Each structure stands twice: as structure tokens, then as C-alpha cells.
UniProtKB/TrEMBL annotation:
Database matches in Pfam families: Rhodanese
Organism: Mixta gaviniae
PANTHER family assigned to the protein according to its UniProt record, in alphabetical order: FAD-DEPENDENT OXIDOREDUCTASE, PYRIDINE NUCLEOTIDE-DISULPHIDE OXIDOREDUCTASE
Span of domain Rhodanese: 42-132
Domain of life the protein comes from: Bacteria
Name of the protein described by the UniProt record: Rhodanese
Length: 150
């Protein structure tokens, strides 16, 4: 251990512990690039849920997402969802916990869920397709993709 290093003042776990923890972390979250790739490729096993209020949804949402505000997620409505799907929740961004509330409600109802890192803010930053209005929208045939460098 290096007494001068702030990073090493708490030693890292061994590689196996790191790999296990990081795999668990990736099980809970998806980033904008990965979600955009799946939507562009027509992956039907995921459903992207915009957990914001309808007026925020109409002002701009992820292309192909559905609006299901976390405040409207009742046990009765959640029971109607397809249990074979994986739901990816999002809200405005890291300063908003609507996606976390939605993910918690979905998981509490026995559904599989991931949360979109950075929400709509990171989605816009990465220049992925946005739709305005009431319709979910269809993924553009030639959606502009930027390499995130990851």
C-alpha cells in the first residue's frame, strides 16, 4: 500500500470480488449507447419506460419508449405487464429519481428491470433519436449514431 496515494488508501478487492461486484452493477443499469443499439436492432425483449409525467413525455422522449409515469404504477396496472420482458426505466437525468421509483415499483411487482444511466439528459447528450408528441415513435431507419468511445 502506498501511504501517499489517496486512491490506494483503501486497497482494491481481489480480481474475483471486483468481477462479481461489477457484474452485479451491470445487471442493474444500462447506458444510452446500449439501449440505443438494442432499439436500433429491434430487440423485442426490452421495453423502455419513460417514468415522467405526460406533459414532459410530449415535450420529448426516447424514440420507441412508452410513457408510464411512476406515479401511475399501481399493482393492478403493473400486473398487466408482460413478465417475459426486461423493462428499462428513465426520467430526466441524474438529478431526478423518477426512474428509480419506477424501477423499484416494477421490481417489487416481480418484473425484471434496469435503470438507464443519466436518463434523457445522457440520451440527448449522445445524440440518440428523440420524438415529440403522444406517440412512442418508430426508430429511424438511418438513425445518427455517434461512437461513445466506450
Amino acid at each position: 500500500m502506498n501511504p501517499l496515494s489517496t486512491v490506494l488508501s483503501f486497497p482494491p478487492p481481489d480480481a474475483a470480488d471486483s468481477a462479481a461486484w461489477l457484474a452485479r452493477k451491470l445487471a442493474y443499469y444500462a447506458d444510452a449507447w446500449d439501449v440505443a443499439e438494442d432499439l436500433a436492432n429491434g430487440i423485442e425483449e426490452i421495453v423502455v419506460i419513460d417514468a415522467r409525467a405526460p406533459q414532459a413525455w410530449r415535450a420529448g422522449h426516447i424514440c420507441g419508449a412508452v410513457n408510464f409515469p411512476h406515479r401511475d404504477m399501481t399493482p393492478e396496472r403493473l400486473a398487466q405487464l408482460d413478465r417475459s420482458k426486461v423493462y428499462v426505466t428513465y426520467c430526466d437525468g441524474i438529478g431526478c429519481n423518477g426512474s428509480t421509483k419506477a424501477a423499484w415499483k416494477l421490481a417489487s411487482a416481480g418484473l425484471r428491470v434496469k435503470e438507464l444511466i443519466g436518463g434523457l439528459d445522457f440520451w440527448r447528450r449522445d445524440q440518440h433519436p428523440i420524438v415529440e408528441g403522444d406517440a412512442p415513435g418508430e426508430w429511424p431507419q438511418q438513425a445518427a449514431r455517434s461512437d461513445c468511445g466506450c
